[in-house]
Amino acid sequence: MKLKEGFILHKTGEENIVVPTGKASKSFNGLIRNNATATFIFERLLQDVTEEDLVQAILEKYDVSEEIAKEDVKAVLKQLRKAGILDE
Questions:
Q1: How far is CA 76 from CA 7, 47, 66, 87, in A?
Q2: Which residue range is the domain that position 39 belongs to?
Q3: pTM for the model
Q4: Which of 16, 27, 52, 66 has a beta carbon 3.0–4.6 Å from 39's, enabling a disulfide?
Q5: 3-state secondary structure of 81
Q6: Could you count the other beta carbons within 10 Å of the beta carbon of residue 36?
Q7: Band of the pLDDT at 55, cuts 50, 70, 90?
Q8: How many domains does the chain have?
Q9: Contact indicator for 83, 32 with CB cutoff of 8 Å
Q10: Model pLDDT, residue 18
Q11: DSSP of 9-71, one letter per residue?
């Protein structure tokens, strides 16, 4: 899975925002604000990855349990699916 084309991450100061561009801006109106973990996951979704790849990346980056990493990944993926910007 990976993000659909036309979505970029814009960092402004402390804030991380997902912005639609090109054709994507016609089908998705709005912005998505990310926390640090969601931004980390978003950056990995620029390439084709599995859910397990994302969990492993979280475990390598952050000092959290596997259970917490799985919950975080599932929560972010749920929001991206809801927004319709995840290509599976």
A1: 15, 16, 15, 14
A2: 2-87
A3: 0.84
A4: 16
A5: helix
A6: 11
A7: very high
A8: 1
A9: yes
A10: 83
A11: EEEETTEEEEEE-TTHHHH--S-EEE-HHHHHHHHHTTS---HHHHHHHHHHHS---HHHHHH
